[in-house]
Write a structure and sequence with these properties.
- The complex is a heterodimer of chains A (about 240) and B (about 170).
- Chain A has about 240 residues and is an alpha+beta fold.
- Chain A has helices at about 5-10, 15-25, 35-50, 60-75, 90-110, 145-155, 170-185, 190-195, 200-215, and strands spanning about 140, 190, 220-225, 230-235.
- In chain A, about 55% of the residues lie in helices and about 5% in strands.
- Chain A has a 4-stranded antiparallel sheet.
- In chain B, helix 1 (about 5-15) packs across helix 3 and helix 5 packs across helix 7.
- Chain B folds into 2 domains: about 5-70, Orthogonal Bundle (Arc Repressor Mutant, subunit A); about 90-170, Orthogonal Bundle (Arc Repressor Mutant, subunit A).
- Chain B is of the alpha+beta class.
- Chain B has helices at about 5-15, 20-25, 35-50, 70-80, 90-100, 105-110, 115-125, 150-155; strands spanning about 55-60, 60-65, 105, 130-135, 140-145.
- Classes of the chains: A alpha+beta (about 240), B alpha+beta (about 170).
- Chains A and B meet through helix 2 and helix 5 of A and strand 2, helix 4, helix 5 and helix 8 of B.
Chain lengths: ~240, ~170
């Protein structure tokens, strides 16, 4: 049983039309004059093989099998000579569909041959395949950017991971008030400024939580001009 | 301005995305459009003649420095990663959207003969395809089109730069 051969081939079909095109090419027959009996038989053999292999057989394959069988039966009917209206070839619609699909399949290959950014050619900045907003404008940022900044800050303190008994008593509301005071005094602070004076991890965390709380209450706003850039905090009321 | 060409070259160099002539004009207020345009084209020619590693290209209605094609393997080595590629299915869906836009999902499926939900979602996530709106027919189906990032990714200046679709001209032949 040549099951493996089938498996490999079936894997490369992008759909029933693709399989049909393959069969037409394989048999070297004219797309405008498809020997429908032959092609239908082969087509059904292929989808039978797919079933045997328990491949996930998309319903579209069965629809085309039905269409092919239908065309085949219509081809067998004698063409009545009495009717003068031109009997259209039962294959015509299918041929039109096949040609259209073929055109787009070729167009897809054409696109693939183009000089694709990040694969064949490169821009100055590597982040070409990440879509970022306009880097020139200062954008308001959300929690995730803040968390990312905090993560980097907390590693930057360079403190040893020692257990330490904290005697300094700080509360979240104290930090909130401190930060608001500082913002009222300076108008604007960077995220690093606010965190930077926090000498220990506990203060660092409270400062971060305070900023989050203030953002949630819409008392402060955070801005960033570029991803991973400096985060500026200012009072929202301004 | 004596160093007009140098200034323009710099502006293009430092821009993350292709910079348009209009944008350059806004920055260089007093300079005539014609001067800007001719400086840019002179730059393009210079890079072309130099035939080095970098070229100045017209992309998505703007200008951007891009590497030549022959150096890609080394850039990939530097980046230490394989480029993300689109599957043939995604490429086919993208081709239908690109050539038929604005296009409904049902139209894409009719051409490809398969369900395109998966590949369409992938293209939307990659920001190569976008929803353009809804068609004013019963059911108000979503219509899709390509994005600016599509032009940038495929190095096109406008959509009309797409290679011509060899549609069924053969029928008559």
């Amino acid at each position: 049983m040549t099951s493996t051969a089938y498996e490999i081939k079936l894997d490369i079909f992008e759909g029933p039309l693709d399989l049909l095109l393959y069969l037409i090419k394989k048999n070297e027959v004219d797309i405008y004059d498809i020997p429908i009996a032959l092609i239908t038989r082969q087509y059904i053999e292929y989808i039978d093989a797919m079933k045997t292999l328990n491949l996930d057989l998309a319903g579209e394959y069965l629809v085309l099998a039905a269409t092919l069988t239908h065309i085949k039966s219509r081809m067998l009917l004698p063409v009545s000579e009495e009717e003068d209206e031109e009997e259209e070839d039962p294959r015509e619609e299918l041929v039109r569909q096949l040609l259209e699909y073929k055109a787009f399949k070729e167009a897809a290959l054409g696109l693939d041959r183009m000089k694709i950014l990040g694969r064949d050619v490169f821009g100055r900045d590597y982040a070409g395949d990440e879509f970022e907003g306009d880097a020139q404008t200062i954008g308001e940022i959300g929690i995730f950017e803040l968390v990312e900044a905090f993560r980097r800050m907390s590693f930057d303190t360079g403190q040893k991971e020692l257990m330490e008994i904290d005697i300094e008593k700080i509360s979240l509301s104290d930090r909130i008030n401190d930060i608001v005071d500082e913002l009222e005094k300076k108008g604007e602070c960077t995220f690093t400024d606010l965190l930077g004076e926090s000498s220990n991890r506990r203060r660092l965390i409270y400062t971060f939580l305070a900023i989050l709380e203030l953002m949630k209450l819409r008392i402060v706003k955070a801005y960033q001009s570029v991803p991973y850039g400096t985060i500026r905090i200012c009072l929202a009321g301004e | 301005m004596d160093n007009l060409k140098a200034v323009i070259e710099t502006l293009i160099f430092v821009s993350d995305t292709p910079i348009t002539e209009a944008r350059i004009k806004v920055i260089l207020q007093d300079i005539k459009e014609k001067e800007i345009s001719s400086a840019i084209h002179s730059l393009i020619r210079e890079y072309e003649e130099r035939d080095g590693g970098i070229f100045l290209r017209e992309i998505a209605g703007g200008y951007q420095f891009r590497t030549g094609e022959t150096t890609a393997p080394w850039v990939q080595k530097l980046r230490g990663q394989k480029p993300g590629t689109l599957s043939p299915a995604a490429m086919e869906t993208l081709a239908v959207v690109a050539y038929r836009q604005p296009v409904m999902k049902s139209e894409i499926e009719k051409v490809r003969g398969v369900d395109v939900s998966g590949s369409l979602r992938g293209l939307l996530e990659k920001n190569l395809v976008r929803m353009m709106g809804r068609k004013n027919v019963p059911g108000r189906p979503i219509i899709y089109g390509t994005t600016r990032k599509f032009l940038e990714t495929f190095g096109l200046n406008t959509l009309s730069d797409l290679p011509t679709l060899r549609e069924f001209k053969e029928l008559e032949g």
